[in-house]
Structures are given as C-alpha cells and as structure tokens.
Amino acid sequence: MPILRPKINVLDDEHKKLILDEAKSILGTQGVFIENQQAIEMFEQKGLNHGGARYLLPPDLIDKCLDSVPHQITLFDRDGEEHITLRDDQVHFDPGSAAIFILDENTGKIRDGQSKDFIRFSKVVEQLKYIDAQSTALIYQDVPNNAQDWHRLYLALSNCYKPIVTGTFRKESFSIMKEILLACRTSEDDLARKPLAIFDACPSPPLKWSDLTTQSLIDAAKSMIPSEFVSMPLAGASAPITLIGSITQHCAECLAGVVIVQLAKEGAPLIWGGSPAVFDMKYGTTPMGAIETMMINLGDVEMGKFLKLPTHAYMSLSDSKIPDCQAGFEAGMGALLGGLAGINMISGPGMLDFESTQSIEKLIIDNEIVGMVQRFIKGIEDYGTPFASEILKDYEDKEELLSHPSTLKYFRKELFLPSPIIDRMTRDSWRKQGSKSARKRAKEEATKLLDKPPVKPIEVSLQNELDKIASTYVK
C-alpha cells in the first residue's frame, strides 16, 4: 500500500458548507430558468413556486434528491466487459467532446473535420494505454446536420471498444442514439446494468437549463444512462469574477440538474462536472489553460466530492493552436492537478484552441502525460523496513545495484516506462535518429498506431446491426 495518496485541495470544509448553503439559497430565492415542458410539469406536480420560467427549488427537495443519487458509476465497454468505475479518487481520462476543427498532422493545418478524421481519431484512442474512455470528439461536416450527433456515436462504437462520453444536439437524436447503444446490449435492462455511454448536458450560465439539455437529462434518467453535467460559468462575463463566486454558481446549476434528474427517475446516475473558464480581459477569450480556470475546476470538483458524487472536469487541454511548449505545460499542469484532485473523469487530452480543435499528435503526447499522472498518484510504496540499509550493504560487493534482486523485482512497478514519444536518449542517439521533436515523434507514432489491428475487433454481427441503423436514418 502507498504511504499516502498525493492530493490537493483549494477549499476547506467550512467554505464547502458555506458554498453549498449559498447555492441552495440562490435556488430557493432566485431560482433556475427552465424551458423544457416535461421539467415544468414535474416541477408543477411538486407545487414549486415560480415566476414565469424561473422556478424556486426548496432546500428540502434538493436534499432529498441528493440522497437518491448513486455514489459511483461503473462503465462497461462495447462488449459488455467491466472497464472503469467512477468513484472516490479514481482518475480516468477521455478526449474532450465536440471540437469543430482537426489539426491535420500531415499538413500542419487546422481545418474542418471529416468523418474519416474521426474514424482515425477513434482508432488511435483505442490503442492508447492510459486513455480509458473515448468521446464523440469531433464534429464533422460530411453528414447531414440532423445526423451529426448520433452518427458520431455510430462511428465511435464501430472503431473503438472503450466506453464513450457523448451527447445530443437535437432532442430527436436521443432515441436513435439509444437504439445504437442497445445494439451493443441484449435489452434495455442490460444497458441500464452495463452502461456504455455518458451523456453530457450543459446548463446555460447563469442558472438556466435549456429545453435541449433538460430533455437530455430526462431521457437519460428514464433509461438509467448516466448524465454528466458540464456547467460552464465564465468568470467575469456570465459568472462572478471571483473564483469562489463562480464555484458557487456552478454548484447551484448542478444542484438544479440533480433535482431534474432525480425527479425524472429516482436513483438515476449522474456525474457532477463542468467546463468553467475565466474571461480573458485582454483578448476577450475563454482560456481553458489559465491557472484560474483550473482552480475553479478544482473547487467545483471538491463540491461534488463533498456531496459524495462522481466527478468530472475539462482539464489537460490547451489554448495553444499547435502541440508546442504551451500545449505541453498547460496540458501537463491540468492533468496533474486533476489527478491530485481525484477527478473521476477528466476530459481534454487531444484538445487545443479553447476546446475547438482536436489533434492526434497532442492526444498521443497527452497519453504519456496521463501515464505519468497515474504513476504519481499511486504514491510512494512502503515495502517494509529497512528501506535502504540492507540493499546498500550489497553495493560493497559489486559496486552497482542494477543487478540487485530488489532492482529486478521492483523496477517495473516503481518506474513509469514511457513510449518513444518521450525523449530520454543521449544527445548522440537523438541526433542519429533524426533530432526529432516530440511532435514529430507523435506524428510518426500515429502512423504506427493506425496500422495496428484493433485491440478488440468488433463482431461482424454487431457491425452489421450498427450499419443497418445508420442506413435507416441517414437521408
């Protein structure tokens, strides 16, 4: 067992209580805007006070709904095998969702995505050891607009076995996406017992759940499919400029989501998550790599953990336009802070340019970062005393410890052994191999990964079923 799991906190328990109490007070006095008719009917059945579309949520209702939320979620892969569990401080990574551009590693240009780009991206994700889940990572333009959300789910499951983070752009899409998921399971009950997908749902800051996102919460809850809240307070623009004020707003928006989900179906799974940012006063942008953005994320997650809920955040991404030094330090800082915080699902590997662009090169580099983070949070192991004295006695005989039994026994456990993406060669060896940058090595690695056979090939019968569903709805 490790001596201590490395951790980080930005809030103490007193401030967590104050934030939670104020968030409840905001919902009880200022309320939340609701556009969705089904949610309105649920609220009115509870006799909730409202002024127009602004509904007031009493604290006792919030507490009751919190009590019925599961404290963990186990996700299964396409074949129904248990894959990862979101609980406690277990940390997992997925590429972020819904970028609109791809950085073409062959031309070096950022361009609109195509379905072939998404297929390549999904195949690379399947091969990466430390990326635990896939996502509908890229919006591509070569299918009809009304098919873009469910078609990405279809291609993702056709090309990668890992569980998936996805979401809907149209209310009508959920039934098609559920049909695709059901093709991978034996029944609706089997899908509920072995969830394959998480559906992102984003409230509109401040304090509003739109018709589309609310419908996603309701539809997912009724099918016992996990919803992942992606609250997006923008500090200084659509949220208070103070970090603690944005954390409080995020808490209120997510509490409203908890109520919607649990009123739709008591006990439905959900994930307390978000993609907040601070507003850059100089450039008018939303920097995801800003340290203050990361601090808001950490506070948001601590509130989710305070409520004993599975957690999520957008971290390990960069605002740089290419996989350069800035991309490395922003992604590395975000990934490490997220790991230290014990965030259950971290979205961001591969993402550039304010979440707008996916890069296979960055994804492959980020996979190494994630591997390092996973090693770090395992902590330092105590193998029993004495720690060093007996080993050092043996040094006198051979004047080296490379062949020592303890070295042979523990080096694979103690050391993170990186792929060739990380340069640890001598300078002479590096020059002999072409003096390549990490980005160049990642580009070459992409070609190798894409030439590999699938880790878990899709069954022909399942692929045929998915193809049949897709052909039915593409008009």
Provide a descriptive summary of the structure in words.
- The structure is a single chain.
- The protein has 17 helices and 20 strands.
- Helix content is 45%, strand content 12%.
- By secondary structure, it is an alpha/beta fold.
- Helix 1 crosses helix 9 and helix 3 (59-67) crosses helix 9 (243-264).
- The strands form six sheets. Strands 9-10-11-13-15 form a five-stranded parallel β-sheet. A four-stranded mixed β-sheet has the order 2-3-1-12.
- Strand 7 (101-103) and strand 8 form a beta hairpin.
- The protein has a domain at 67-378: Trimethylamine methyltransferase-like (TIM Barrel).
- The longest helix has 22 residues, at 243-264.
Topology summary:
Blueprint: H1 13-29, E1 32-34, H2 37-45, E2 50-51, E3 54-55, H3 59-67, E4 73-76, E5 82-86, E6 92-94, E7 101-103, E8 110-112, H4 115-127, E9 134-135, H5 148-159, E10 164-166, H6 173-182, H7 188-193, E11 197-201, E12 208-209, H8 211-222, E13 227-229, E14 234-235, H9 243-264, E15 270-271, E16 277-278, H10 291-306, E17 312-314, H11 325-341, E18 345-347, E19 351-352, E20 357-359, H12 360-378, H13 389-398, H14 405-414, H15 427-432, H16 438-451, H17 460-473
Parallel strand pairs: 1-12, 6-18, 7-20, 9-10, 10-11, 11-13, 13-15, 14-16, 17-18
Antiparallel strand pairs: 1-3, 2-3, 4-5, 7-8, 19-20
Helix pairs in contact: 1-9, 3-9, 4-5, 5-6, 8-9, 9-10, 10-11, 11-12, 12-16
